[in-house]
Specification:
Blueprint lengths: L9 H4 L1 H12 L9 H10 L7 H4 L5 H25 L4 E5 L6 H5 L6 E6 L1 H10 L6 E5 L17 E5 L8 H14 L3 E7 L2 H9 L4 H4 L12 H5 L4 E7 L11 H10 L3 H7 L2 E6 L1
Parallel strand pairs: 1-2, 1-4, 2-3, 4-5
Antiparallel strand pairs: 5-7, 6-7
Helix pairs in contact: 2-3, 2-5
The structure holds S-adenosylmethionine.
């Protein structure tokens, strides 16, 4: 089937970096995540991953290419799954959802209302490419526009996910968005992946990120405690270093040794690999 893709901004294009990583992961003999739907979607779109040299290169072992994205998805999925089990009347918001089929991986009770928010062009693609269900809603909006939140129920506990999106928001827009969200809902949790200022500077310069570098707007976060000061009612519950996850033992020798070394230090872990943060509000 031939599929015509629209033109994307660098931020929108980045959804193929994460989707492509999950697709490649699912082709591993022992996947970290095993999201075969990601692979089907990439194949249907016919999108060539050559824009992302780190996914295309033959020099890197495939496990090293996909580890960060696949394992952080798995960690965040677990947070969402546990939240909706405790709150079957929850609202889940996946901010900057791209073409991620997280709802299929989490498989929440049908009493959960799930909202995938991304730019209108991406929300339209989701409607064409992902399975639809009565309790799953695609919201086409810019996250920095306060208007879209008015249509989201405000009387249920909320699980808010920001997976791979913070790097495209200025610190001011990100903090304003979080303050709107924590005010809108009676309470809930927030799960996101964070990068240090050093990682953000490296991304902006790196050849691997050239396709999306133009829209990298966030300066990075070195201290997860800062968000508690900037956002009303936010309390840090977990800081999960991917270097310390059991999945790191399945990396090839060099990656495994580096992860084991970095795992001894929080600072090194923050520099070396993705960090997943979970807050309560
Ligand atoms: C790296 S992708 C991550 C997609 C998805 N969460 C995943 O893990 O595959 C970043 C996504 O954030 C979206 N995004 C970035 N800035 C946004 C904004 N201001 N409003 C809505 N979506 C935004 C992009 O369109 C893109 O789909």
């Amino acid at each position: 089937m031939s599929f015509t893709l629209p033109a994307f901004t660098p931020a929108q294009e980045s959804l193929f970096l994460t989707l492509g990583s999950r697709a490649l992961d699912s082709r591993l003999p022992r996947p970290f995540l095993g999201d075969t739907m990601a692979d089907r979607i990439i194949t249907t779109t016919g999108y060539g991953l050559d824009k992302f040299p780190q996914l295309n290169t033959k020099l890197l072992d495939r496990r090293s290419k996909v580890f960060d994205v696949a394992v952080r998805s798995k960690v965040i999925d677990g947070m969402v799954r546990r939240f909706v089990l405790r709150h079957p009347n929850a609202v889940v918001l996946d901010l900057g959802a791209g073409l991620d089929g997280r709802i299929s991986r989490v498989d929440p009770p049908t009493t959960v209302e799930w909202y995938d928010v991304d730019f209108p062009v991406v929300a339209d693609l989701r409607r064409k490419l992902l399975p639809q269900s009565a309790n799953a809603h695609n919201v086409g909006a810019d996250l920095t526009d306060p208007a879209w939140l008015r249509d989201i129920p405000s009387d249920r506990p909320a699980m808010i996910v920001a997976d791979g999106v913070v790097l495209f928001l200025t610190q001011e827009d990100f903090v304003a968005l979080l303050n709107r969200l924590t005010t809108h809902f009676p309470g809930g949790e927030l799960a996101l992946n964070a990068y240090t200022t050093h990682a953000m500077r490296t991304f902006k310069r790196s050849r691997a990120m050239r396709a999306i570098a133009g829209d990298l707007a966030n300066p990075g976060l070195n201290d997860p405690g800062l968000l508690e000061h900037w956002v009303n009612g936010l309390t840090l519950l977990d800081e999960i270093f991917l270097t310390r996850t059991p999945e790191a033992a399945d990396l090839p020798l060099i990656g495994r040794s580096a992860a084991r070394l970095a795992a001894k230090s929080a600072t090194l872990s923050r520099i070396m690999a993705t960090v997943v943060l979970r807050y309560r509000f």
